[in-house]
Every structure is written in structure tokens, then in C-alpha cells.
Design goal:
Elements (H helix, E strand, L loop, with lengths): L3 E6 L10 H21 L2 E8 L4 H10 L3 H19 L5 E4 L3 H16 L3 E11 L4 E2 L5 E4 L8 E2 L16 E5 L7 E10 L5 H8 L7 H13 L4 E2 L1 E2 L5 E2 L9 E2 L1 H5 L2 H13 L6 H4 L5 E5 L5 H15 L7 E2 L5 E3 L2 E2 L10 H7 L2 H10 L7 E3 L1 H30 L12 H22 L3 H22 L1 H7 L1 H22 L4 H10 L6 H4 L25 H9 L3
Parallel strand pairs: 1-2, 1-14, 2-3, 14-15, 16-18
Antiparallel strand pairs: 4-5, 4-9, 6-7, 6-8, 9-10, 11-13, 12-13, 16-17
Helix pairs in contact: 2-3, 4-8, 6-10, 12-13, 13-15, 13-17, 13-20, 14-15, 14-17, 15-17, 16-17, 17-18
The chain binds zinc ion (2 copies).
The site of one zinc ion has 9 residues, from loops.
């Protein structure tokens, strides 16, 4: 029985290249999840796209004297290249600049307006007299009223994570010209979030399986009580408001970007030539929606987007919001402006994708912040990927290839130790699938690694290279058992390490890919011709640590 699953993945602002924090936070987890479910035969739709309207884009464009569209084009192309090289397999990665997205947004806006969930009111906004304009939230900086962090932006505090109103900032100043902005009245549309407080509480109460930080953070905001929020802004860059007389204002980016999950599903369906196919995910009550976002995005996906969907009616709400915490860089928060980050295109110019997918998976910031350091990267690459997993696969395959005419040997009678490893492989196969389906990605890859360690111990004990001369059948049996464990690991590692797992699957004599064969534990056929194996991973020189650390912050 196949499941129907929508994966909504955070929309990155197209204002700079991706860094490792983005990948660990929001992009690798859904790809692991999607690869597993596709292999299992489920109907998966994984969508996202470049967020092209946010003020981060106009900030960069103004700074560089370019148009926002030029900035967007550059980084959207960069994202697409990163996905391709890292093996992040979106069914559609679009942008919020499409006509389809504007139409879907306006449709949602008008329906919510018609149903009284959106209303018009006056709000005070910060106005920069020197520039004669209202300042978008991100153009204002000041002190957070909640935690007193003095680098808070007008939309959110990066220190305590709370969404803010620019007016609530203490000591605000204009990020653009440094002037002290003054409050001024402006007419805007508001989303009546306060009316959704109780319905949301009720909706969340059975969601005890959510990750602790996501659940607690959401319940905390609901218990404080939701405030209505303005969903339009005094801007020129963005989606027009579909109401006469509002031509000089735009729909605000946080309201519009989340609608991208719906508009992207529609666009995907149109591109497939089956324009109604999106309904299988959005209007089918059996479909489950998973959202993968960083922790700064939690309230938008557990409160605002569900409230909008409730107001709109007839569409599926999130099933799980598997938000991750932050990945710090050598102990400090990654920062685009300070260059304190490892950029994905830069990483990929020097190293392979799978080692990165590996380290970000074993160290995934699922419920706590995690740290990336080059020393850890080199250590895990050399000790775990190369020594534990890569060498296991390589030495068993090479030894078998050379001593058994390049074929999978026929096993003799199995002893207790053989059966122990085979049953561990069967258990690992079940466990990894269960972990991935529950969005416990770190536990899944750790189970894979534990089996690789067990297979290494088995091999050291059985030492087929010693038994080969005296008892060829015993050697054949040990190699067959070890190869079975390795074949299982090729499949269980596949959602995490797709490139090397597919490569290994070929060495094992499979003519189909893992993706095509599906999520099933391989059963080896004695006599199958192997393909002469090559090492799966490269050992890294310890000098890499110093070289790469010197690049940080420059
Ligand atoms: Zn704060
Ligand atoms: Zn100013």
C-alpha cells in the first residue's frame, strides 16, 4: 500500500549562495526522506523554490547597484547547480516570480478576505525621512525587546528567534542610511491570526510525535496568544495586492512564500501535463504533508501557514514540521555578512558530495544545535567513511573478485557467527527504514555505521584470507555473508550517500540502480558476476584542516 507524501522544503532567499548550515538545516533531511519513500514505492512530491521577493534580495541589489531580478537570476542558477551536484532531488524547484505563484497567492488572499480572515486597518510603520520611504522590517535594526540582543532585525531576532515588529525594537536605526526612523501611519491588510489561536491549539494537541523543540516553541506562542499581523507592505518589489486602490503596496513576503508549497505543486502538475494532479496531494485527506525548515522558520509553518490553510478550507494541513536547529561553524553561528560559512559551491569544487552528506547526517542538528568543523570532517571522513565503511566494502569485494573468479561465491553451511551477522543485517534494514520514516535521520545513519562496524569485527574474526587455502568453502561462506551485509548497507546508506551506494550496488553485480530496485533487502545469488571494485571514498590529508580553516571568514 503506497503512501502519498508532500515534502515542503524551505524557500531559500536568492540573495547569496547556500552554505552548509542551509544544507544541514533544511535541504539534506528532505532528500533522505524523499529517496527512502520513492524507493519504497510511495508517491512523493518534493517542492520548493527560490524566494525572490524578500527584502534580503532588495538589500543586496541596492548595495550592488543591480536590479533585484539580476540578483535572483544569479543565485537561483547557483541553487540549481548545488542541488544537482549534491544530489538533492526536488521534483520541482521553482521560484516565487512565476505568474502561477502570483495567481495562487492572490486567490488565497481574496478567499481569506472574502471570509473575513483578512481585514484592512491602519498601522504605524517606521519611516525614513532622509530617504522619504517606509522601511521594510529588514531595513531596520535595533535592540530586541525580549532578550535585549542589540543586533535584532525588524522582522525577527536572530538571538532568541522571536518574530518581531520593527516598531517594537528598542533604539531602531535605518540599516540603509543610519538615520533614526520615525513612526508614521499607513493603511494595510491584516491576517486575523488571533481568531485561529484556539483552532490551532486543538489541531496541535494530537501532534505529540513532533520534535520536542518544534512542539514546545509552537505551544509557547499559542499560550502567549497570537496577534493579528500585517500581510502587506509599502514596497514595489513583490506580488501586487488584488484590490483596487492598492497599486503602490505589495503582499508581504512571509505571507506569500508559504503559499509556494501549493503553487509549486500546481506548477509541477501543469508541467507533467496533468494539471489536476496536485489535488492528489492537497485535497486527498490521506496524503501526508511534511515540512523541512530551519528553526527560524518554525512559527511560519506550525502557526501562520496552518492558519491560512484553515481559513482557505479544503486543503491539507501539515502532518509534521521536521524543523532542525542550527549548525554552527567551528563554534560560532554561521554568518553570510562576515563570510563565516562554508559555501556549498566552494566545498563542491574541492570535495565529493557524499562525505558532506555523511557528516551532516551523523551530526544533524535535529533537536540540538550541532557544530561543523574541518577537523571533525577530516576525522570522520578518514575514520568512519574510509576506514570503517569504504575499506570494508572494498577489501571484501576485491578479495572475492580476485579469489573467486570475479563472482559471488556459493556459501557452505552457516555457523552461529554467520547467522548472527545476517540477522543483524536484517534488523538494521528494518531499523533504518523505521528511523527515516519517523524523520530520525541521525539514528538511521548511526544504525548503518553500527552494522558496518559489526561486519568489520566479523571479518577480522573469520579472516577468510587465512582460511582460503586450508578450507576454501569456509572462506567462501564468510565472504558470502560479509557481501550480504555489504549489499544491505548499500541500500540502507543509499538515502544518505546516494552516489557511492549506487556505485557499490554496481560492483555487486546489479544491472539496475537501487532507486529502480527499490527499498528491499538484497538477496545475493551465488555465481553473479561482480564488477571490479574501486575505492568508494578518498582519504583526506590532515593538512586540509588548516587550509580550510584559513578560508573561513575571508
Ligand atoms: Zn531576542
Ligand atoms: Zn534611511
Amino acid at each position: 500500500m503506497s503512501d502519498t507524501i508532500l515534502l515542503g522544503v524551505a524557500w531559500p532567499y536568492a540573495n547569496g549562495p547556500l552554505h552548509l548550515g542551509h544544507i544541514a538545516g533544511a535541504y539534506l533531511p528532505p532528500d533522505i526522506f524523499a529517496r527512502y519513500h520513492r524507493a519504497k514505492g510511495d508517491r512523493v512530491l518534493m517542492v520548493s523554490g527560490s524566494d525572490t521577493h524578500g527584502t534580503p534580495i532588495t538589500v543586496r541589489a541596492e548595495k550592488e547597484g543591480r536590479s533585484p531580478a539580476e540578483v535572483v537570476a544569479e543565485f537561483h542558477a547557483s541553487f540549481l547547480e548545488s542541488w544537482q551536484q549534491l544530489g538533492i532531488t526536488f521534483d520541482l524547484f521553482t521560484t516565487t516570480s512565476t505568474d502561477n505563484h502570483a495567481q495562487t497567492t492572490q486567490e488565497m488572499f481574496l478567499r481569506l478576505l472574502e471570509r473575513g480572515h483578512i481585514y484592512e486597518d491602519t498601522m504605524r510603520l517606521l519611516y525614513c525621512n532622509r530617504e522619504s520611504r517606509f522601511l521594510p522590517d529588514r531595513y531596520v535594526e535595533g535592540t530586541c525587546p525580549h532578550c535585549l540582543y542589540d543586533g535584532a532585525r525588524g522582522d525577527q531576532c536572530d538571538n532568541c528567534g522571536r518574530p518581531l515588529n520593527a516598531l517594537d525594537l528598542l533604539n531602531p536605526n535605518c540599516k540603509n542610511c543610519g538615520d533614526i526612523p520615525v513612526p508614521r501611519d499607513s493603511r494595510h491588510f491584516f491576517l486575523r491570526l488571533s481568531a485561529f489561536n484556539e483552532p490551532l491549539k486543538e489541531w496541535i494537541s494530537p501532534r505529540t510525535f513532533w520534535r520536542r523543540p518544534v512542539l514546545n516553541w509552537t505551544l509557547g506562542l499559542l499560550n502567549e496568544g497570537l496577534q493579528d499581523r500585517a500581510i502587506t507592505r509599502d514596497l514595489e518589489w513583490g506580488i501586487p495586492i488584488p484590490v483596487d486602490g492598492w497599486e503602490d503596496k505589495r503582499i508581504y513576503v512571509w505571507f506569500e512564500a508559504v503559499i509556494g508549497y501549493l503553487s509549486a505543486a500546481r506548477e509541477w502538475a501543469q508541467r507533467q501535463g496533468t494539471p489536476d494532479a496536485w489535488k492528489d496531494w492537497w485535497e486527498n485527506p490521506d496524503a501526508r504533508h511534511y515540512y523541512f525548515v530551519g528553526k527560524d522558520n518554525i512559527p511560519f509553518h506550525t502557526i501562520i501557514w496552518p492558519a491560512m490553510l484553515m481559513g482557505f478550507g479544503g486543503l491539507n494541513l501539515p502532518y509534521d514540521v521536521a524543523a532542525n536547529q542550527y549548525l554552527t561553524m567551528s563554534g560560532s553561528k554561521a554568518s553570510t555578512s562576515r563570510g563565516w560559512a562554508v559555501w556549498v559551491p566552494d566545498y563542491l569544487s574541492r570535495y565529493d558530495p557524499d562525505p558532506l552528506r555523511y557528516i551532516l547526517s551523523v551530526n544533524m542538528p535535529e533537536t540540538n544545535d550541532a557544530d561543523f568543523s574541518w577537523a571533525e570532517f577530516v576525522r570522520r571522513n578518514n575514520d568512519e567513511l574510509v576506514a570503517t565503511w569504504g575499506n570494508l566494502a572494498n577489501r571484501v569485494l576485491t578479495f572475492t573478485y580476485r579469489n573467486f573468479e570475479g563472482r559471488i561465491p556459493r556459501p557452505g553451511e552457516l555457523d552461529k557467527r554467520d547467522r548472527a551477522l545476517l540477522s543483524a543485517a536484517a534488523e538494521t534494514f528494518e531499523a533504518v527504514g523505521t528511523h527515516i520514516a519517523a524523520c530520525q535521520f541521525k539514528a538511521g545513519i548511526n544504525a548503518c555505521l553500527a552494522l558496518a562496524q559489526q561486519a568489520n569485527r566479523y571479518l577480522d574474526e573469520m579472516a577468510p584470507w587465512k582460511s582460503l587455502k586450508a578450507d576454501r568453502e569456509r572462506a567462501a561462506t564468510s565472504l558470502f555473508v560479509a557481501l550480504s551485509a555489504i549489499a544491505t548497507l548499500a541500500v540502507t546508506f543509499y538515502p544518505y550517500l546516494p552516489f557511492t551506494s549506487e556505485q557499490l550496488f554496481t560492483y555487486l553485480g546489479n544491472t539496475n540502480t537501487i532507486e529502480a530496485t527499490g527499498w528491499r533487502q538484497p538477496v545475493l545469488e551465488p555465481g553473479t558476476a561482480l564488477v571490479e571494485p574501486q575505492p568508494l571514498f578518498r582519504k583526506l590529508d590532515p593538512s586540509v584542516v588548516e587550509e580550510e580553516e584559513a578560508r573561513l571568514g575571508h
